Each structure stands twice: as structure tokens, then as C-alpha cells.
């Protein structure tokens, strides 16, 4: 599995290349930056990302959606089940080729997220899950999202919670992350870009995952990372538990639901463009 929470390739300054239309399937490898489906040892991270797509997809129903930083593409395809149109953008050429060959109902192109190749006010929703922590110019990216959104459009962002993901550190543990955020910092980033009505959610382990935590020294996350870093064999019980994780094993909650969002694994923000 990945030694760190997978994400997507970081955005680096470049001109926006044209859309890609591959003619043959492309297989993505596990790099530690992004999660991919259909791997038992990657299943925990995959389900932790997939659950946010599942829970928020209804907000995309019948709408024009941009996924900024689509990675392997499974999330864009999930949204395409309900959306009117899904445009997927990623900086990584291999990822774009893979999405184009595997997910035909997604319109995919290679581009720099700092300069989105879309007209002003051209989409209803921008989805940005587990990406913003990889970007150098987070403020500029969020302003680009505001530009391409129509009035009352939604920007939906998920990102690891800095407080729990890199506890006690000013710099991220994950070498692929440029800047991690807590709930207040993410809210400030969105508000400074002109977004309003920012709703913040937290992702937590549900009861079954908390039982797994207890079986693996208090944290199934730490158990996986420790063995990945040491390149050590996985105990059979850990292999079985990781492979058994489903999206139903995660809880996505607000402050009103009880848990303190500051203690969440991931943050999920939904912001409205005026």
C-alpha cells in the first residue's frame, strides 16, 4: 500500500496542453500520490476517498461538473452517473490517458490547475478531493474555481486534516504535500477567494473501523504505514481487515452531529459562489 495517504500529482506551472484522446487502455501504477481501485492492500485509502464522492454525488445531479485533479478517474465516473456532464482535468499525462480509455462518459483533458482551461461561469460544480494539499498556489487555484463557476455554483473540497494527519508539525509528513490545512485555514482560504456559506464536515472512522483500530494497536492507519515504511510483511489479520473496509465504515459529520471536526481524519468543505 502507499506509505502515505494517496493523492494526486502536484500542480506545477506550465501552459495548458490540449485534450487527450487515447486509443488504448493505460494501466496506472501505485505511486504513493494517488489511490487506485481494485487493490486489496490499497483498499482502506481507496474507500476513504470514495466515500466522499458517494456522499456528495447527489449535489451534482443534472449539473455540469468539473473535477479539478481527477487522478485515476473513478470519482469522476461515479459523478457521471448523475451529472449532466463531467469534465475531468489532471496534470499527469498518464492519468489523463488512463481516464480517457477507461471512463468514456467523462470528458478528460490535461491541464494546469492554476490556469483552468474553461470559460468564465461555465460549470455548476467544481469537485476537488484530496488535491489541494498538493498545490503550491492554493489561493490562486481557489480563485480559478470561483471564476469558472456559475452564480450559486458549488466548490466541494476534501483534504487531510493537518491537525490529525501531521500532528504537531508545521510541515507535512507526506513528501507529496505542499501545505496541509485545518478547518479554520480551509474556511479562510475559501472565504478569501470570495466564496460564501462555507459548510464544513469531518470524516471519521465508524464503529467497525474503530474495532479494527483496537485490533491493530490503536490505529489501522499506523499499522499500514509502519509496515509500508519498513517494507515488512503484513500479518494476515491486517490484510483481511484492510481488504474488508467499505465506504459504510466511515462517518461524515458536522459540528452539530457531536464530534469535534478538529479531530477528523479528513475535512470536507462545501462553499457557494455568490
UniProtKB/TrEMBL annotation:
Residues 66-156 form the Methyltransferase type domain. SUPFAM superfamilies: S-adenosyl-L-methionine-dependent methyltransferases. This is SAM-dependent methyltransferase. GO terms for biological process: methylation. InterPro entries: Methyltransf_11, SAM-dependent_MTases_sf. The keyword Methyltransferase applies. It holds the Pfam family Methyltransf_11. Residues 1-27 are annotated as: Disordered. The lineage of its organism: Bacteria, Bacillati, Actinomycetota, Actinomycetes, Mycobacteriales. One of its GO terms (molecular function) is S-adenosylmethionine-dependent methyltransferase activity. It comes from Mycobacterium gastri. Signal peptide: none annotated. Keywords: Methyltransferase, Transferase.
